[in-house]
């Protein structure tokens, strides 16, 4: 690993240890969402990815679209886990 990367890890670790557990969860959830959006974009056709890299506005729109999909899925999971299963 390169030294700048190791320095970044140190900064992230230091930041996480200096915030409340609730804030830690929020920070890690944000990172998880970023990773999921990146994965969603990388699953696209290579030609589409290249187009997004050449068009910042289109890239922003695609990221916003992916974020909205993830938010909806997260909300559905939260709603589903709040409703107890009914045994038939």
Give an overview of the whole structure.
It is a single chain. With 88 residues, the chain is mainly alpha-helical. It has a domain at 45-69. It has four helices and no strands. The protein has helices at 3-17, 21-42, 46-54, 56-82. The termini are far apart. The model has no long low-confidence stretch (mean pLDDT 79).
Produce the secondary structure layout.
Elements: H1 3-17, H2 21-42, H3 46-54, H4 56-82
How would you state the average pLDDT, rounded?
Answer: 79
Instruction: Please count the helical segments.
Output: 4
Radius of gyration: 18 Å
- Count all strands and give the number: 0
> Per DSSP, what share of the residues sits in E-state strands of 2 or more residues?
under 5%
Assign a percent range to the helix content.
Answer: over 70%
Derived structural class:
mainly alpha
Overall shape: flat
Low-confidence runs (pLDDT<50, min 5 residues)? Answer: none
List the helices and strands in order: HHHH
Major sheet size, sense and barrel closure: none
N-to-C terminal Cα separation, in Å? 55 Å
InterPro entries: PABP-dom, PABP_HYD_C
Domain PABC: 1-75
Protein name: PABC domain-containing protein
Keywords: Signal
């Amino acid at each position: 690993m390169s030294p700048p990367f190791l320095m970044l890890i140190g900064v992230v670790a230091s930041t996480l240890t200096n915030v409340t557990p609730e804030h830690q969860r929020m920070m890690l959830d944000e990172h998880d969402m970023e990773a999921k959006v990146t994965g969603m974009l990388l699953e696209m056709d290579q030609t589409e990815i290249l187009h997004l890299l050449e068009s910042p506005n289109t890239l922003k729109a695609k990221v916003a679209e992916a974020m909205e999909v993830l938010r909806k899925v997260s909300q559905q999971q939260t709603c589903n886990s709040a409703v107890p299963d009914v045994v038939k």
